[in-house]
Write a structure and sequence with these properties.
The protein is mainly α and about 325 residues long. The chain is about 50% helix and about 0% strand. It has 13 helices and no strands. Helix 2 packs across helix 3, helix 2 crosses helix 5 and helix 10 packs antiparallel against helix 11. The longest helix is centred in the middle third of the chain and has 30 residues. The radius of gyration is 23 Å and the shape is globular. The protein starts with about 30 loop residues before the first helix and ends with a helix. The N terminus is likely disordered.
Amino acid sequence: MSSNDGSLHKCSGSALCLGPRKKVASLNPLVLHGWHFGHMVFALCNYPSLLTSGILQLEELQDSPIEDFPADIRQEHRVFMELIDSYPNPLDCLTSGEEEDIIHVGELLGKGASGARGDNTKTLKCAVVIPPLSRNIKSDRGFNHEVTGALLCPAGLDWFNAETKESLKSGETTVRGDQWPMFIYAGYDYDPEDPWKGLLKSEILISGFKHVFTSPSSVDKEPKATHSGNAYLHGMKSVTKGSIAYIATQTDMIMDSENFYLSILDLLEDPDESQEVTNLMMWWMRQIFPNSSSSQGSISANSALLKICAKRAAALQEQVTAGS
């Protein structure tokens, strides 16, 4: 790799923000991997910057542990390492290559991610929102439409209050990214006493997920296979936190999408919320991959596996009893 560190910073700004959007032009494996990583792990990457700054960070970590760095640097390093770990043997190639090679790899990854985002944006909202929306007419959506306005109304506000509705329509009330809309709640119903109740379990999100990750035709069908459609093609075997945040953001029609995405992802990665998140991820697995082993909450009655587990538990109990 070139020793000219200054040139590595051509891609200014944080790597965890969107770079220039470019149309996908090939089926290069790195382009396909950009599709996968952007959907499944982290959607808002400037890949050339992420790679160049990540490689420099590895050199700095030889002298200082990652815990000594600010939170944004730690997050950027985590995303970089997930990207490196998700693709066969990339680190040796990147560290032994020239700066131009690193940037080229980043551009290919970015093509896949941004191209997929563009395609999803064009089709998703029109496909999963009730009533269906025209792709080319935007005056009848957002807070200007009675149904979409109710779905987009921030949880905790009353869409059916005339003053609130008019304030949202006029823009007098600015909706921030961390003011989550009603459409991400099951039944589009928010309980202020139990804000986790129904969170990220709405019909719109399930339909959006199927539209992107399985196939548009699967939206109105019950999932029957462990892997299906696009999920199978891209090696997707489970629902991830990043994929849920991605679908929620792509379905939204009016919000500060970057902060919305990050606020959802921050919640799902918060260790203090691990029990609720575990339950949520299991619920999603049952919706999308109902036949996978990780979505089966318990072992089937009278199965050989159940008998093996019971026999093992009994043997362990005998050992404990004998030892005491």
